[in-house]
Amino acid sequence: MTRTAVARAPGRVNLVGEHTDYNDGVCLPIALPQDTVARVSLRAGDRISITSAQQASVWTGDLAGCGPGRVDGWVAYVAGVLWALDQEGYDVPPGLDVHVTGTVPLGAGLSSSASLEVAVAVGVLALTGRRLDESERRRLVQVCRRAETEVAGAPTGGLDQSAALLTEPGCALLLDFQDGSTATVPLGWTAAGLELVVIDTGVSHALTAGDYGARRRECEDAALALGLPSLRDADEDAVRRLADATLRRRAAHVVSENARVLSVVAALDRGSWTDVGELFTASHASLRDAFEVSCPELDLAVDTALAAGALGARMTGGGFGGSAIALLPADRVDAVRRAVDTAYADAGFRAPRHLDAPASAAARVVEVSG
Ligand code: ADP
Ligand code: MG
Predict the structure, then answer these.
(1) Whether 144 contacts 111, CB under 8 Å
(2) CATH homologous superfamily for 194-356?
(3) Could you tell me the pLDDT band of residue 155, with boundaries at 50, 70 and 90?
(4) pTM of the model
(5) C-beta 14 within 6 A of ligand 1
(6) 163 CA to middle of ligand 2, Å?
């Protein structure tokens, strides 16, 4: 029987802390129930085949053909992991069949890409008989981050990979990009009768990549003008004195957003759900008005959810499309979804997709056979 390992890894949604990762800041993701499952089998010889239930193309090659500049499209995320594992000194078998299938919506800001990378990495690890302990999980964050940055060509700060590998069910993960530390933050809201929902707008506005780069540069310029290594060390008074109005707004978002992450953690600890909701909504206002990365679809989802009884709502992810989240009483979920659907139809927007978002488990090995 062919030796086979099956592994799964979740998508994620960031509760708060947006555009803070590349500013040495903090953020607070949870793992989603939606995931990617990778089936990795040994095969004789030195050929590697990569297939996905979500894609028509089939890739065949060898390990040497998995590196930067050798693969593109969706295959780069999978081949990139094999390359990065090899680079980091893992024993990657030369002959492999890799098949993936996923339920994380692609390109919705819920990190299907990291869930794909991590599922493949954990699958290969299990196949070679290595144990997935805590320190291994942390090494895989870096492996998958290298795959996405160096092979798929999408610079990533490690938020998505950390969420897929380090989260615990029922908990968020507080990530600090300045010192690399993480902390598990229990979410008591389910017991309090609340639910978190995701509204996937289904849109992705064309200018995203350029705007993302522009925001990063503006943040660097603001830090430079303040004489700081990053905006993490900036305070509100100094930001108010910045001469350039655009840089002032961008920096004000980053500084206030980092503070909101810590306030959300404190409010979660107290069980102050109204405060959590208000902080989510304040984060949205800051991303919309100061950082200017929202869009009409995200604003409508947030405003409608709030009007229909959500305690708080905000865009999540980089912006210009993607998804919004809302925290609301469980018995308001249907009403909020109906209200958002109606508002979208009235505005002439494409119908959004609704997802449940209970804080779920990190990546794991499902089975190893043969
Ligand atoms: P997000 O991570 O927010 O979903 P990205 O643009 O970072 O958006 O990653 C989406 C890309 O990841 C897809 O376009 C595809 O190339 C790849 N991908 C994710 N899941 C799968 C899958 N199950 N099969 C094939 N490719 C996938
Ligand atoms: Mg991604």
Answers:
(1) no
(2) GHMP kinase, C-terminal domain (3.30.70.890)
(3) confident
(4) 0.96
(5) no
(6) 12
Question: Taking the CB of residue 42, how many other CB atoms lie within 10 A of it?
Answer: 16
The one catalytic residue in 35, 160, 176, 200 is: 160
Is the C-beta atom of 52 inside 6 A of ligand 1?
yes
d(CA 131, CA 172): 24
Residues, Cβ < 5 Å to ion ligand 2: 111, 113
Among all ligands shown, which has an atom nearest to the Cα of 80? 1
DSSP assignment letter at 233 = G
Where in the chain are the domains?
A: 4-186, 194-356
The pLDDT tens digits for 287-337 are 999 999 999 999 999 999 999 999 999 999 989 999 999 999 999 999 999
Taking only the tens place, the pLDDT of each residue in 47-75 is 999 999 999 999 999 999 999 999 999 99
Q: Which atom of ligand 1 is closest in space to residue 54's alpha carbon?
A: 24
> 194-356: same fold as 4-186?
no
**Mean of per-residue pLDDT scores for the chain:** 96
- The CATH number of 4-186 is 3.30.230.10
* Annotation marks residue 160 as catalytic: yes
Please work out whether the CB of residue 54 comes within 6 Å of at least one atom of ligand 1.
yes
Q: Which ligand sits nearest to residue 198's alpha carbon?
A: 1
* Beta strands in 46-157, from DSSP E residues, in sequence order: 48-52, 59-61, 96-102
Query: 10 Å Cβ neighbour count for 346?
Result: 10
Residue nearest (by alpha carbon) to ligand 1 atom 11: 113
pLDDT digits (tens, 9 = 90+) for 22-35: 999 999 999 999 99
Pair 82, 48: CB distance under 8 Å: yes
Buried b (16+ CB within 10 A) or exposed e, 181-196: ebeebebebeeeebbb
Specify the ligand 1 atom closest to the Cα of 317: 3
Q: Is the pLDDT of residue 212 over 90?
A: no
